[in-house]
Design brief:
Helix content: 55-70%
Radius of gyration: 17 Å
Strand content: under 5%
Order of helices and strands: HHHHHHHHHHHHHHHH
Structural class: mainly alpha
């Protein structure tokens, strides 16, 4: 099908699967676990509705297609279109907007400076850049960039909203995982371990990044991490919790369906954990492994497919 459709639909499907139960506690979901696409719930939306995760992902993808590359100001303009006008949404209205993203877009609307609108403070390390980084990862991969060039782009795209080094590195680690999945032909856990090993080696070249790697310590040995019990896996909106929960859901399952359901049923930030897991699962298992019953209800599916098809042709 192509890497763009695999990765983007993985994100959108995970997002839509988690949307109806976002903010639900794990104990509540244990009583009535998600087993497929649901309607209504938290935001009272039809089945297959996706949230800000996919909206910002698709806005980024559309910008890449429009300018045939990465233009930070153009991406922010598309984010403004989403935030203020409801572009890149299922039904013309933006919802489920994180505070850090909202503040960054508001700041950009005032200054038109994409280099200063993202928050640099440590307490703004939510998952709002990690959730939308897939198109930038696929673009850098498709252009066969050297690591230095790719990581700079990934960090810059993260910093549009989340400019603290921890958030930028989470996106960078995700990029290295994307690259390993696409380059290798191994079991998923081996590919992800290689991606993380490559990321660690890259970030150890810089002192500040080396210090920040401590935040990602549990991910450095996935063969040990997969044995961590679920009650020690957090699924909050904190970027470290999110990337851990996403990777854990992938390495403790053997199909895309299992991985996404496991991610959602962890509770709390269900849509984003599943979206981030879904992007990697889509690349590994492929678009064809997404259950047809789930795809059939994805809102604006044909439009999303059109964007992905255009990306496949362009890049």
């Amino acid at each position: 099908m192509g890497i763009w459709k695999d990765g983007i639909f993985g994100v959108v499907t995970g997002d839509a699967l988690g949307c109806p139960v976002e903010f639900r506690e794990r104990e509540e979901l244990a009583v009535s676990p998600v087993s497929g696409m649901r309607g209504h719930g938290t935001f009272d939306q039809p089945a297959g509705t996706w949230t800000d995760d996919s909206s910002m992902t698709l806005a980024t993808l559309d910008s890449i297609l429009t300018v045939e590359g990465i233009d930070l100001k153009d991406i922010m303009r598309d984010f403004m279109g989403w935030y203020y006008e409801g572009s890149y949404t299922p039904f013309g209205t933006a919802f489920d907007i994180g505070g850090t993203c909202s503040n960054a877009i508001t700041q950009f609307a005032r200054t038109r400076d994409p280099k200063t609108c993202g928050d640099t403070t440590e307490d703004c390390n939510g998952n709002g850049s990690l959730m939308r980084i897939m198109p930038a990862c696929l673009y850098c991969y498709s252009k066969k960039m050297y690591d230095d060039e790719a990581v700079k782009i990934i960090h810059d795209v993260s910093a549009l909203t989340h400019a603290h080094l921890r958030s930028k590195m989470a996106c960078g680690i995700y990029y290295f995982c994307v690259k390993a999945i696409l380059d290798e032909d191994k079991d998923l856990i081996d590919e992800l371990q290689d991606g993380i090993d490559n990321a660690v080696a890259y970030y150890k070249q810089d002192l500040d990044s080396t210090v920040e790697l401590a935040s990602f310590a549990r991910l450095t040995n996935l063969y040990s991490f997969r044995n961590v019990p679920s009650n020690e896996i957090k699924s909050s909106g904190y970027v470290i919790d999110t990337i851990e929960a996403s990777i854990w859901s992938l390495i403790t399952t053997t199909t895309l369906k299992q991985a996404l359901l496991k991610a959602v049923n962890l509770g709390e930030d269900t849509d984003t954990v599943a979206a981030i897991a879904g992007g990697l699962a889509g690349l590994y298992y492929g678009y064809g492994d997404i259950p047809s019953a789930w795809l059939s209800v994805i809102q604006r599916r044909e439009w999303i497919e059109g964007l992905c098809d255009e990306a496949e042709k362009e890049f």
